[in-house]
């Protein structure tokens, strides 16, 4: 299933990245003018983000995208959110669902 949702995931990633970059750029100068220790605030944010990455995101270097479901199933936190099925039923639903009906009506 990861290959089917990859473009949507990339779009969300880029949008969130641009939104957060905009927020930091807009917040930095006003905070720098008003707060004496603004760099400590951003340093604390970096520490929190580093801890999140260290504890909640598994290592994926060298793992093919087809095997990513297994990586999430093996992770101590995310395994409770991942379905144990192989995804074959969901793939059949996608192939047999509304997309198939749209093809039939467009050809008629």
From TrEMBL:
It holds the Pfam family Sugar_tr. Residues 1-61 form the Major facilitator superfamily (MFS) profile domain. Gene3D superfamilies: MFS general substrate transporter like domains (1.20.1250.20). It is found in: Membrane. It comes from the Eukaryota. It is a multi-pass membrane protein. The keyword Transmembrane applies. GO terms for cellular component: membrane. One of its GO terms (molecular function) is carbohydrate transmembrane transporter activity. The chain crosses the membrane at residues 12-30, 37-57. InterPro entries: MFS_dom (IPR020846), MFS_sugar_transport-like (IPR005828), MFS_trans_sf (IPR036259), STP/PLT_plant (IPR045262). Keywords: Membrane, Transmembrane, Transmembrane helix, Transport. Belongs to the major facilitator superfamily. Sugar transporter (TC 2.A.1.1) family. This is Major facilitator superfamily (MFS) profile domain-containing protein.
């Amino acid at each position: 299933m990861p290959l089917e949702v990859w473009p949507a995931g990339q779009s969300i990633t880029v949008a969130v990245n641009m939104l957060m970059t905009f927020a930091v750029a807009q917040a930095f100068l006003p905070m720098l003018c008003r707060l004496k220790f603004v760099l400590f605030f951003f340093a604390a944010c970096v520490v929190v983000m580093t801890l999140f990455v260290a504890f909640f995101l598994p290592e994926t270097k060298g793992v093919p995208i087809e095997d990513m479901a297994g990586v999430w199933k093996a992770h101590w936190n995310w395994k409770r959110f991942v379905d144990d099925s192989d995804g074959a039923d969901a793939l059949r639903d996608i192939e047999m669902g509304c997309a198939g009906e749209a093809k039939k009506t467009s050809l008629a």
